[in-house]
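Practice problem: predict the structure.
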Amino acid sequence: MVRLILILAFIAILAIAFAAVLGTLATMRLSSGEDHDTMPETFRKIAYFALVLLLLGLSVGWLGAA
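Answer:
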């Protein structure tokens, strides 16, 4: 039962991240030819969340522990 909940939570997280990426891409498409020196805030948040998730997975053993 816990696995089912974790799988559903993971799918929900992926859907939210995908929607955020699509929103960011749409915003970037609408912007004029301005130079963007920094990474967009949404990508930064997604990258930080993915890093935390990766570290959690490695420490728990889902992704890397033998």
